[in-house]
């Protein structure tokens, strides 16, 4: 398999990556055949996966614009993946020039491509780190340079927590990040769930098996389990809902049925 120029030498391009699979669903070009093969296997069980990811991305953009409208100009995006059109820094800086963004991911391809995309952008940076180690993120040079934790921050945990197993304590990591935020900060979150998927759970479970096979377990939590991530926050209306229903710009009933899979919401620290 030929290694593209943009692929860091340190990565094994024979092993699928969650962030590159996501890039494929969104129509990106920073993925390998091994990623596309895993994505196609998952789509055999849930052909609407690209629609779900597009709804997820559209929710993120609306939530970032909402945050800017609330006066927030600092964004910490953990599990950011590979930047594609309409990433956080593009949306935030278009709405409010000078907005500062730190992306965090543990995939070397996501980090390397983010560095290339952000070259020359003094108000955005990327950090290679793990969600489950919040202090490494919070004390990093990138966060210390760009994020003032004494002022409100928008923390994005978008399509990342469902890749963290309970034994790795995702609730503890989310709480540790929350406790570092100033009052008035926002949590922007999406999470996969069997609820809302237009398929029987046993059929949709085939996707979980695909991700398990590539050693990236996909944890489908219930709405109540997802709501626990918002403990310590006041929910922003309309609360924790399917992604097209969160402050839609177009009539939700016109959305593809697949877009209603999973949940998204925004919470505010008191």
Key features?
single chain, 270 residues, seven-stranded mixed β-sheet, 10 helices, 7 strands
Describe the 3D structure.
It is a single chain. By secondary structure, this protein is an alpha/beta fold. The N and C termini lie far apart (52 Å). α2 packs antiparallel against α9 (201-213) and α3 (49-69) packs parallel to α4. The chain has a seven-stranded mixed sheet. The longest helix has 21 residues, at 49-69. It is built from ten helices and seven strands. β1, α4 (88-95) and β2 form a beta-alpha-beta unit.
Query: Which strands sit side by side, in order, in the main sheet?
Result: 3-2-1-4-5-7-6
The radius of gyration is: 17 Å
Low-confidence regions? none
How many strand units? Answer: 7
The helix/strand order is HHHEHEHEHHEHEHHEE
Rounded mean pLDDT is 93
Characterize the overall form.
globular
**How many individual helices?**
10
| Fraction of residues in helix | 25-40%
Class per helix and strand makeup: alpha/beta
The main sheet comes to: 7 strands, mixed
* Share of residues in strands: 5-15%
What gap, in angstroms, lies between the N and C termini? 52 Å
Quick take:
The chain is about 35% helix and about 15% strand. It has about 270 residues and is α/β, with parallel strands linked by helices. The N and C termini lie far apart (about 50 Å).
């Amino acid at each position: 398999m030929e290694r593209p120029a943009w692929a860091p030498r340190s990565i094994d391009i024979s092993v699928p990556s969650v962030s590159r699979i996501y890039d494929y669903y969104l129509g990106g070009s920073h993925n390998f055949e091994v990623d596309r093969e895993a994505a196609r296997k998952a789509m055999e069980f849930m052909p609407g996966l690209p629609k779900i990811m597009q709804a997820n991305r559209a929710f993120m953009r609306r939530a970032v614009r909402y945050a800017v409208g609330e006066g927030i100009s600092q964004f910490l995006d953990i599990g950011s993946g590979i930047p594609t059109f309409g990433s956080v820094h593009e949306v935030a800086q278009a709405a409010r020039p000078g907005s500062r963004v730190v992306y965090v991911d543990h995939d070397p391809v996501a980090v390397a491509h983010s560095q290339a995309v952000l070259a020359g952008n003094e108000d955005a940076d990327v950090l290679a780190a793990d969600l489950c180690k919040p202090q490494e993120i919070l004390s990093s040079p990138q966060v210390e340079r760009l994020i003032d934790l004494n002022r409100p921050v928008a923390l994005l945990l978008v399509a990342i927590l469902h890749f963290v197993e309970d034994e790795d304590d995702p609730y503890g990591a989310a709480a540790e990040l929350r406790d570092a935020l100033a009052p008035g900060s926002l949590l922007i979150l999406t999470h996969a769930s069997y609820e809302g998927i237009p398929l029987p759970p046993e059929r949709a479970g085939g996707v979980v098996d695909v991700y398990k096979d590539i050693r990236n377990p996909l944890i489908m939590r219930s709405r109540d389990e997802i709501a626990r991530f918002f403990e310590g926050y006041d929910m922003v209306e309309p609360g924790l809902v399917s992604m097209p229903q969160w402050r839609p710009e177009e009539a939700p009933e016109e959305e593809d049925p697949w877009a209603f899979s999973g949940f998204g919401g925004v919470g505010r620290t008191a």
